[in-house]
Amino acid sequence: MSREQWGSRTGFILAAVGSAVGLGNIWRFPYVTYENGGGAFFIPYLFAMLTAGIPFMILEFTLGHKYRSGAPKTLASLNRRFEWLGWFQVMISAVIACYYVVVIAWAISYCYFAFSQSWGDDSNSFFFGTFLGLTSDNAPSRLGDLRWNLLLPLSIAWAATYVATYRGVQGGIEKINKILMPLLFLLVLYLIARIAFLPGALDGINWMFAPDFSKIWDPKVWSAAYGQIFFTLSVGFAIMLSYASFLPEKSDINNNAFMTVLMNCGFSMLAGIMVFGALGYMAHAQGTALTEVVSSGVGLAFVTLPTAINLLPAPGIMGPLFFLALVFAGVSSHISIAQAVITGLMDKLGWNRHQASTLFCTLGFLISLLFITQGGLLLLDLVDYFINNVALLGACLLELLLAGWLCRLTDFQRHANRLSEFRVGNWWLFCIRFVSVGILLILLFNNILGAFRENYGGYANHEIYFIGWGMIGIMLILALSINAASRQESRL
Amino acid sequence: MSTGAIIMMIIGLGLTWGGAAVCLGIALKSRKGK
Prior knowledge:
The complex is a heterodimer of chains A (492) and B (34). By secondary structure, chain A is mainly alpha-helical. Chain A has a single domain (9-491), classed as Amino acid/polyamine transporter I. Chain A has helices at residues 9-20, 23-27, 29-35, 42-67, 71-78, 83-113, 123-131, 151-195, 201-209, 219-232, 239-244, 254-286, 290-293, 297-311, 315-349, 353-368, 376-406, 409-419, 426-453, 461-491. In chain A, helix 8 crosses helix 16. Chain A is globular and about 70 Å long. Chain B is mainly α. Chain B contains one helix and no strands. Chain B has one helix at residues 3-33. The longest helix of chain B is centred in the middle third of the chain and has 31 residues, at 3-33. The radius of gyration of chain B is 14 Å and the shape is rod-shaped. The interface between A and B is medium-sized, with 27 and 21 residues. Chain A: This is Transporter. Chain A: It is found in: Membrane. Chain A: The chain crosses the membrane at residues 12-30, 42-63, 84-115, 150-169, 181-202, 222-246, 258-283, 321-346, 358-380, 386-406, 427-452, 464-485.
């Protein structure tokens, strides 16, 4: 059977950008910028984009296009002993798919709440108490009851991913991204246009962009810049390998990778203007300093911004539009995460798309029920910390070591240059072999040390060891077992 | 907004969206050439 293909180059680029542009662009990037020198942060950030983000994206597009398969088969083609790394990456995607969808479910609920600002004046106690039902008794290991109010939005989010992945690359993923991505950009531009002229908004934007150049000599700022680039691009966990494996034979690689990364980083900046504009207006309206209202992550999206929405003119329109933007950004990323797992299953086990999609989305839905319990947020927080800071960075590092040091990287360079509209030179080899590997080694070492030294989030030791490290251990054992079984099978 | 903030905003948006526009131009030119 011939492999599915993208229907057009635009479809592929929009899907790749849709994968990279996610919740993190909206709720993580603006805060990281603000925390690390404001506008001055763009110097290390753009440097990291050029020396790590773009080279890694070119590598993933090249490998996916050359071997035309998902992560396990691609990495096995590089070296049979490393098939496990492909499975490990697929498992990272599977775990992320199960909790990421819960945040989309929250955003869907808030999209509805925003019409009447159901969160009232105290958005903090509404989100944690009324909405999530979180109590002081809950912990990652004491989840409490299922929150039935989240079942419908969770089902809607999974249904969107199921329909897209079930209908295939051209008929599902490409079509949905061709609708969602232009809409997302238009939504963000509209929100910026409405927010930027409100009193205090420009002060908020100024807080984000005003450069503090003394910070660029701080190694932590550079580490934050590279960390942000690795987190934002969907590289190193099977997604871009899977998407690139559906590229037609004669496809550009280098220019597509440049466009994907540049648009993703550009979108982050637009999201920053939107978020800080709203925060600036909120600080102005409340008569407080911006430093008192600024936040990131779940707190920014579901506590701070709802308060800001209360103060906006026409909150019944602006509120739903903001949460709709979150839903669009989340769904396009979730589809790509699920597709990474589905491609792995289809390529390795010979399943058809319908079987793989149905099995994964059903199992994923059941597992994600764990995260819509009273203590689900705490479990999500702990799992996300270990997946992002340890498993993902480790998988990125090993993939780069494998491609850059154990394989002939010049072969991949030739493959990428053969069909591309412009060529990449020796700088690309240097960035993959030295810059990206070196930075990832430092980041991973620091993260592992940090995870052992401090009790992340104040969680109990047994939760950190059994849930955090235990999950990574189980993923490793499973991946290595599949690799061993594959090698035994091929010997027979 | 301060001048520094405006300059950094132009640099950030210019390099990313400007870069993407240049790449798009290259892609369109190559399509025309085929």
